[in-house]
Specification:
Shape: rod-shaped
Order of helices and strands: HHHHHHHH
Number of helices: 8
Largest sheet: none
Helix content: over 70%
């Protein structure tokens, strides 16, 4: 999760905990706002977990996808090409039919081309068998292509979950900051004559922004919450 969001969520959690421990019984708006903040934080934490899981899942799937694709190219598909070249003396069209394009292909195009090769190999199964194709070769190839397809889909699903969670979290953070600002207004009013409680409140809703280089980020002006 991006640093700004994490800092804001940590601050909002501190605000929620402070407010939960400092009841404002004669102000219904206070409790309604606090309830809204608690519910929004619960949703934000769930989105945080979804975003992290999606990011990890996409990274893992990307690595698996690359490894599987390289394995397919270097082993079964390359073996098909070589058998087709050997058999082309008998059937010249086989050499071109079983040659993967050398340019970089998208994963979907690569998968489609590989599946076409597997289907064509089924058609010329007797020819390839006579040139040494193992009995389980085609079944193993199809299983590997299915595995590659699953990994591609897993990567897409994980990326979608990551991107979707981040987008919703950005929108939710705006709502959370609005609730924090509302509580800030209420607490500053009720603690206006209590310096100790006011200082405790300001500490709870302060965002510890990281310094950029040697310069320090100034704190928000009194009465305002960093957005």
């Amino acid at each position: 999760m991006f640093t700004t969001a994490r800092l804001k969520l940590d601050m909002a959690t501190s605000v929620r905990d402070f407010c939960a421990g400092h009841a404002y019984d004669n102000n219904p708006k206070y409790q309604v706002t606090l309830t809204g903040l608690s519910e929004s934080l619960a949703r934000a934490r769930a989105l945080e977990s979804q975003e992290r899981s999606g990011d990890i899942g996409a990274t893992t799937a990307t690595a698996s996808k690359a490894a599987l694709r390289q394995q397919l190219k270097e082993q079964p598909l390359k073996h098909l090409e070589r058998m087709a070249e050997d058999a082309s003396a008998e059937q010249p069209e086989l050499a071109e039919k079983f040659r993967l394009p050398r340019r970089k292909l998208s994963h979907q195009v690569f998968l489609a081309a590989a599946r076409t090769m597997a289907a064509d190999a089924e058609t010329f199964k007797d020819v390839f068998t006579s040139y040494g194709m193992p009995p389980t070769f085609l079944d193993d190839l199809k299983a590997s292509l299915d595995q590659y397809d699953r990994v591609v889909n897993q990567k897409h699903a994980a990326t979608s979950a990551h991107v979707g969670a981040r987008a919703e979290l950005r929108a939710l953070l705006k709502a959370i900051m609005a609730l924090v600002n509302r509580l800030d207004t209420l607490n500053r009013y009720r603690f206006q004559n209590d310096a100790e409680q006011l200082a405790a409140w300001e500490s709870a809703r302060n965002v510890a922004w990281p310094a950029r280089g040697a310069a320090k980020t100034p704190k928000p002006e009194s009465g305002k919450t960093a957005a």
